[in-house]
Amino acid sequence: MPIIRVDGPKVADLDKKRQFVKEVTKAASTLYGLPEKIIVVLLQENSADNVASGGQLICDLHKSDS
User: Fold this and answer.
1) What is the per-residue pLDDT across 27-50, written as a single tens digit (0 to 9) for each?
2) Could you tell me the domains of the chain?
């Protein structure tokens, strides 16, 4: 049973999440040749103050963009 973990920003739109996991599941099913019902997708939502890139918090990087 493949388990796909996706770490990303928070997504408030539940319909967008539904569409995303549907598409990821379908792609994995095609790739592995397995039924969609055994594909597990885990979404880990992270706020910008809990993620860093290049030694800086993402929330701080966005401040410098403005």
Assistant:
1) 999 999 999 999 999 999 999 999
2) 3-65 (3.30.429.10)
